[in-house]
Amino acid sequence: MRNGSQSADRMPGGRSSSGPVSSTRAGRERNISPEDLDQVFSTVGQSLRDGKSSKAEKLLEDTIANYTHTAENLAHLKRLLAFTFETIGRYKDSLDAVIAYEDPELIRRSFVRTAEEVLANGGTVAAATHDERLVDSMRDLAERHDPAAERHEYQVLLGVGRALRDLLVDQGERVRVYVPYGGESMAYARRRLAENPRLVRHVLGALIGDRT
Questions:
Q1: 10-97 has which CATH code?
Q2: How far, in Å, CA of 167 to CA of 160, rounded?
Q3: Residue-wise pLDDT tens digits, 15-66
Q4: How do strand 125-128 and strand 15-16 relate by DSSP bridges?
Q5: How would you class 79 by CB atoms within 10 Å of its CB: exposed for 0-12, middle for 13-18, buried for 19 or more?
Q6: Which of 47, 24, 20 is closest to 35 using CA atoms?
Q7: Where do the CATH 1.25.40 domains begin and end in the chain?
Q8: Which CATH architecture has domain 104-208?
Q9: What is the distance between the alpha carbons of residues 77 and 157, in angstroms, rounded to a whole number?
Q10: How far is it, in rounded angstroms, from Cα 46 to Cα 99?
Q11: Can you spell out the DSSP letters for 106-131?
């Protein structure tokens, strides 16, 4: 996405298949159109599915740096950047990318609002949560916007919430189990436990019982 470069797959409105055209000189202080932002989210999602996290990271960082955004859109971009970092074990960078909400109800409302917006517009949602209330909300959204269960999945940490995980699998839901790894994994785990003390109960249960 270099300034002045030409691409054979350029799209109307200055877009290309790799996202909106941006430059530090011309793009900064410039609003990004809804169409270009949708293209960014679509490209990032496909890049992550293809295992190209570095491409997703660069596009997100360029989009954040070179355009002005509403508070809501900026939050979406930063959350997606945080998730991108997590996929490659960069947990410290993931935590630094966003400012955590403190109020559980605000977290839930933001989660449900974001998930509904994505599903309603044809996107794919990966619901990474052990909160049974959020899972219930997610299932309601999926019934309305993704009854074929092709554009959503649930993600859990290994050893946390096995009963919920097994229930979702038994009901035909797709569940992805994540294992933190790398040099920052312990710091990440401690931060997660500090942010959500309820996870301690799940972790202790996994240590005493079956860890699968």
A1: 1.25.40
A2: 13
A3: 444 444 433 344 445 888 888 998 999 899 888 888 888 999 999 999 998 9
A4: unpaired
A5: middle
A6: 20
A7: 10-97
A8: Alpha-Beta Barrel (3.20)
A9: 23
A10: 26
A11: HHHHHHHHHHHHHHHTT--EEEE---
State which of 125-129, 140-144, 189-193 shows the largest mean pLDDT. Answer: 140-144
Instruction: Give residue 69's region: left, alpha or beta (phi > 0; psi -120 to 50).
Output: beta
What is the strand order of the sheet 152-157 is part of?
125-128, 152-157, 175-178
Residues 6 or more apart in contact with residue 203 via CB below 8 angstroms: 159, 160, 193
CA distance 143 to 164: 18
Residue 175 tokens read as: 């569940």
What tokens appear for 157 in the block?
A: 């940490």
Cα 118 from Cα 178, distance rounded (Å): 22
CB 124 within 8 A of CB 151: yes
Q: Where in the chain is the domain with CATH 3.20.20.220?
A: 104-208
13 pLDDT exceeds 50?
Answer: no
Closest CA to 95 of 13, 187, 164: 187
